[in-house]
Design goal:
The chain has 121 residues and is an all-beta fold. The protein has strands spanning 4-10, 14-18, 24-25, 27-30, 33-38, 48-56, 59-68, 81-95, 100-113. The relative contact order is 0.28.
Length: 121
């Protein structure tokens, strides 16, 4: 049985609301231990991670781990959300003998998105 599945997607199909913590630097792990080497994307940019409530193509994912080169997040006004820029990779992984799933979303970038207006307001 596979331990994880990876889904490539357009980043704008991912909507996010940060869940409290500010982005923190990500580090490379070797032999199950954290090193002091920063984790980077293919362009060599350091990566930062934070937790967020997420939707993917309108489907609620709950709380996910988001990893991107964004060291700080854009300010959000009431009703605004963050969305991915570029490409996204969603990874769903088994944790603790398949009874706990963890979803990680890796994004090329993040932008704020104002709430949509309905009814011609």
């Amino acid at each position: 049985m596979a331990n994880s599945i990876t889904i490539p997607a357009p980043a704008d199909s991912v909507l996010l609301v940060p869940a409290g913590n500010a982005p923190r630097a990500q580090f490379v792990y070797a032999d199950g231990k954290r090193t002091d080497v920063p984790r980077t994307n293919p362009q060599g940019q350091p990566l930062y991670g934070f937790d967020a409530l997420a939707q993917f193509d309108g489907l609620d994912l709950g709380t996910v781990r988001v990893v991107s080169p964004a060291e700080t997040l854009p300010a959000l006004g009431f009703g605004s959300v963050l969305h991915g820029v570029g490409s996204a990779v969603l990874t769903v992984a088994n944790q603790r003998d398949a009874f706990d799933l963890r979803i990680t979303v890796v994004l090329d970038g993040i932008e704020a998105q104002a709430p949509s207006r309905k009814g011609g307001e």
